[in-house]
Amino acid sequence: MKGAVPTVLLATGLIVGGGAAWLATSHHSASRSPVPAEHFMPPPDSAIPKTPFGDEVRRGEHIFREPAIYASAFVGNQLRCSNCHLSAGRLAGASPMWGAYVAYPAYRSKNGHVNSFEERLQGCFRFSMNGKAPKLGDPTLVSLESYAFFLAHGAPTGVDLPGRGFPKLPKPPVAADYQRGAQVYAENCASCHGRDGLGQSSGGRVVFPALWGAQSFNWGAGMGSIKNAAEFIRANMPLGLGGSLSVQQAWDVATYMDSQVRPQDPRFTGDVAATRKKFHNNANSMYGLTVNGGVLGDPAMTPPAGTIPVAASSAAPAPVQSE
Q: Transmembrane stretches, by residue range (predicted)?
C-alpha cells in the first residue's frame, strides 16, 4: 500500500540475560499505531558472525528476502516472506521472526498437534507461498531456522513477547462491509498493489505483491483469515503509515481483499462445501461463500494449489556468497 516511509527503531540499550538483545521504541507515522512502543530488538546484520554458522544465517536471510531465487523448488507464486514479515522479519507488529522462533514448539489447532519451528516454516511454503513444503531437515529450512535463531538472540523463550505476531484488533463498530472495503482499497491500496490486486512489477521484478489472483497466497494461508489480514493492515498499511486506517477501515478492506479469487486450499477434499466445513467453518473465512455471483474456492474459477514451475522444481538453489 502507498506511502513508503521507513520505520525508525531506537535502541534503549537494555541487555537481556547477558545476550545481545535490546528493547526498542518504534516511531510510526501515526500516533494511533497499535504496535507496542517498546519491544525486543534483534541484532543487526553486522553482528552475523563470519563463520560457517554465519554463512547459514546469511543464506536464510537471502531465502527470506528472495525465496523464488534461493528456494525456487518450493515456491509457487511471486511473494516473498518479507511481504508479510516486514523489514526482513525484524519489524514488531508484523509477525517478526524473533517473536515466532522463541514461541516454538507449540500446539497449533490448524493441524491438531505440537509443531516444531521447522514444521511451522513448512506451512509457510505450502500455504503462503502456494508451493510445497521442504522435508524436515532440508537445507532451506535449516537456513531459515538459523536466520530466525540469529534474530532472536537474547530473547527469552516461551514468552509472548510484545510485538510478536500482529497487534490484536477490536471488533469493528459495525459489521465489516465488502463495498466499503472496495472504497478503502481504491483510496489507500490500489496505487501500489494495482486496481486489480495483482501487484506491480518494474524491470521484471515484483515491487508490490499480489493480494489475490494466481500469484498470491492460497486459501490455506493465514492471511486468508479476515481477522489476521485486518490486524496486519491496521498495524502496517499503507506501508510506512501503520495506524492511519481506522479499525473499521481495516476490517472493511480485509473483508474486500479476502473475498477475491486466489489459489485453491491444498487441503481441498474435492468438494467446496466439505472443505469449508472441515477447514474454514468460521466467520473469518470467505471460502465456499458466494461473492459477486461466484463461489469462492469453486475449481472452475480457482487457480490450482502448489504450482511449482517445472524448471524451478529441478533447479539447484542459487548460491549465496560468503562474507
A: none
Of the candidates 85, 46, 97, 23, the residue with the CA atom closest to the CA atom of residue 221: 85
- CB-CB contact of 85 with 73 (8 Å): no
3-state secondary structure 36-86: CCEEEECCCHHHCCCCHHHHHHHHHHHHHHCHHHHCHHHCCCCCCHHHCCH
Place of cell 511454503: 125
Give the residues of the chain that fall short of pLDDT 50: 1-22, 25-31
- Domains and their CATH numbers in the chain: 8-163 (1.10.760.10), 178-295 (1.10.760.10)
Q: Render pLDDT for 192-216 as a digit per residue (tens, 0 to 9).
A: 999 999 999 999 999 999 999 999 9
Grid cell for residue 243: 495506524
**Which ranges in the chain belong to alpha helices (H)?**
52-65, 67-70, 86-89, 97-101, 117-123, 139-151, 178-188, 190-193, 226-236, 247-257, 272-279, 310-313
